[in-house]
Amino acid sequence: MTIIIDEIAPRLRLLNETLREVARRPSALVGGAMLIIIVLTSLSFPAVYNVNPLSQDLMARFTPPAWQEGGTVAHLLGTDNLGRDILARLLHGSRISLLVGFAAVALAALAGIILGLISGYYGGRIDNIIMRIADIFMAYPFMLLTISIIAVLGTSLFNLILVLGLSDWVTYARTIRGSVLSLKEKEFVEASRAIGTPHRTIITRHILPNVISPLLILGTLRVANIIIWESGLSFLGMGVPPPMATWGRMLADGRIYITDAWWLVTFPGIAIMITILSINLLGDGLRDALDPRLRNI
Q1: CATH at residue 223
Q2: Which of 65, 101, 71, 103 is nearest to 86 (CA)?
Q3: pLDDT at 125 > cutoff 80
Q4: Domains: count for the chain
């Protein structure tokens, strides 16, 4: 019991110090608060705004927002060309975008961590093979690669997450590999290796905890990129299939009527902008808080 407490106590102190540093960064606080509000709103919207995002009412098509002439409080942000409520579709689309963003980043990070640790620690032929595969992925344009794979697999939410996740593993693998190459030459790693500590233990207990900080920062920032890519693919008709509401599909459907119904593209664009802004602010704040060179600045 004492041994367990001795191992946990330093980690708890480090966590407390990290949280205090994060609390000192206004960008992290603002971005985190905005992101929490977005997540909570997307999860609770059926209870807050109980309107079916797929329900059509052709008699109410192109209803403007409530504050504009001809608008109604029944549709606060107006309706689209099929009479579907824009606000309900925005809230439903936030679920899709956030799910794709976080799930794809988790999948890419998992694959990147495993391959990056193996490549950086063992080196040699294994490192050459993994890095050459990474070079092939990097040589192929990301959007073209995802479109090609989705065209073969078909459009579905699962396929979209799978393709975006597996297409983005190179970023994490290269970041982890670079950190491992420097860490494995440190004295504490050499000492563990000298006393016969198994390689698996060295990787999981000594190297992996020291690469979590840059990985956390990278993952936070990549969520924003994945959301943009998901919106772009949905805009091109290669993302989540209809009738599911996504921000990218709302932009694609509304671009035809932009001169007559400005709200069809304005509100999805604002939703994407605010979400990306909140994630980037959080990522910048975490970078400043977790980088020892930027502390106390």
Answers
A1: 1.10.3720.10
A2: 65
A3: yes
A4: 1
